[in-house]
Amino acid sequence: MPGSHSPAPSAQRTALVTGAGKRLGREIALTLARGGWNVAVHHRQSAADARQTAADCDALTGRSGSAQPFYADLGDEAGVRGLLPAVVAHFGRVDAVVNSASLFEHDSAQSFGFAAMDQHLHTNTGAAILLAQALHAHLLTANDRRDGAVVNLLDQKLWNQNPDFFSYTLSKAALEAANTMLALALAPRVRVVGVAPGLTLTSHLLSDDQFAELHKQSPLGRSSTPDDVAATVAFALGNRSITGTTLLVDGGQHLMRFERDFSLM
Fold first, then answer.
1. Which of 119, 40, 120 is nearest to 83 (CA)?
2. What do you get for the CA distance between the two ends of the chain, in Å?
3. In three state form, how does the secondary structure of 199-260 look?
4. pTM to 2 decimals?
5. How many domains is the chain partitioned into structurally?
6. What confidence tens digit (pLDDT) does each residue in 148-206 have?
7. Does residue 71 sit within a domain?
8. Strands 96-99 vs 38-43: parallel, antiparallel or unpaired
9. Does residue 188 have a cis bond before it (omega within 30 degrees)?
10. Are 79 and 44 in contact (CB under 8 A)?
11. Whole domain around residue 170: which residue ranges?
């Protein structure tokens, strides 16, 4: 939840970015701050990282209080439902939601079970839908007839499937389908756009050399960088003619056949 200091409602556009304390969510938050947005920096476990992201956003905007950390467990429905109203209470408005946070835990067709599926669907799919719903409801009550946008981070593997990370992939496939339904249901006040990166950041499963080699495996000779993905999110938020579609930002990796997930290759 926000700190005790609550500034007056702002005329600046405000974006809620989930999972913005670290990794790709942080890069998206910083890019939006460079564009003058206020940023609600959502986190679950990484409170210190979220505070640092907020401070860095303030430095980029030159406005103290232009960014603020907010806690929520995206696997908990009550917590998700309380998140956007908390951001509105702090900033006075919300214009966009970027659903960047993702649960990414390994399972397979052999190890699949309801518990893993439920965790991924709640966090990766259900939370994103509830936040889109909340943004739409908020904008319907706005006096200035503002429109808004939701960007959902997806994955190139939806267009180039392999059997790894079974529940994660199901949750992202469901979110990609929800893009279409939400774009229809929430128009004209809210646009809904998917952004699907390729291999963008390394993990504990890959050495630096492995990551560098895998990153090259695309028709363009490079996959997406954090800057590429963040710039595409900013573009999707700014282009008022885009809705109900997904922008693949992966150097063309979705055009190639990968038998395994990058992290297991």
1. 40
2. 39
3. CCCCCCCCCHHHHHHHHCCCCCCCCCCHHHHHHHHHHHHHCCCCCCEEEEECCCHHHCCCCC
4. 0.93
5. 1
6. 999 999 999 999 999 999 999 999 999 999 999 999 999 999 999 999 999 988 877 78
7. yes
8. unpaired
9. yes
10. no
11. 14-264
